[in-house]
Amino acid sequence: MRGLPEDGVTGESARPDGPVADGSIRHILIVAYLYPPTNVVPAQRPAGLRRAFVSAGIRTTVLTSAISGSYEDDAAQRIIRAGDLRTRFRTQYQTLVGYREGPLEARGAPRWWTSYIPPDPTAASWFPQALTHLLRLIRNDRPDLVVTTSGPESSHLLGLVASTFGIRWVADYRDGWLRDVEHPAIVRPIDRALERWVARRSTIVTAVNDAIATEVTRQHHVPAFTISNGFDRTVLADASDERATLDPTRFSLVHTGTLAIDIDETVLHRGKDAQTFLAALALLLAEDPELATRFEFVVAGRISAGEREVLTQGALGKIVRVLGLLPRNRALGLQQAADGLLLIPGGADATTAKVFEYLAARRPILAVTESDGVAAGLLHEAGEHTVAEATDPESLALALRAYLSRWMTGASFAPRPDFDLDEYEYENLGQKLLRLVGGQAGP
Question: Is 343 helix (H, G, I), strand (E, B) or coil?
């Protein structure tokens, strides 16, 4: 997956240094720190939006970090990989995003000094070289619209720069501002100033759900619009057939992605909620040892050595299978082949792309999250999914028992007939964003 970053996009005619006279959008620049081929959830949104823009007939360029890896035809795909100091020093982050192969022993806390870099460490590791590419692109092939999507928040700093050239700019929030970052008091005034500048200087603010959009509006008195996370049917169609991977004699509950059981994991709630789920599962096994003959919990994703030990210790070792990190088509295939899916969003306001992949798989979902959270509301709207809070192992065990009792008996799951899953397909989400900015594809 590793490769040298490209200097820029070649082979295209330069555009004039000024906006398109009729206001149409003929060239979009998407700025995203993570982008395929890295196989992580944050890379899916910019990739899905890019496909939607291209489908609408709009020439689209991507500016991303070299830490995401590269394709042999990056230049032909109009993907610019800006150099990143994170590629030069061996760290756990390289393994987490797949830039470097090999086992992950354990997730460690970030180095203390990184908390003094506002808005986040990528402002030092990636932003300077990304800025060079942005200025070169504006000079040689000026975009009509820039879409910056975070986190990390350093992507929005590039939007701030683009706005000074009169370029329309969509600041897209995948999470609340610095959701997983806690800076020392001396840095926080800079955080607040940057957040205010991004919200007020962008042409439009978008967010992945109403809760984040409402918070932006409340804090900064600017309208913010919801462009949900979603799924891409073309990607789902390439999913492999993974039925043989699962045990046909047992109910297979599948989790794909990061569990983050490690104590030092910074993702909000997720690690703690995952630990509570495993404790609840252990309680069920203690009450009914025969469950091990009828049930399996299958985990596919980047798992550290410490996490693997927790997942397979004691009685859990009889029902847990750890497959490790799989290619994206196999992970999607597992979702579609599963009897049920485990979702741990990681906070009340979290609605990652995985929620919508799960919904598209049309399997009963067990979500360990707040009952009044955004993901819970979406699941209740979509079908007879189960939402259980990770208050304590005992109460979660009750919810898990009820979930298994219903779906292990052969009950048939179907989404609610009035739930419009197509609304969350990236083709439609991209069109919605274009309508917000008043754009139309040029000739």
Answer: strand
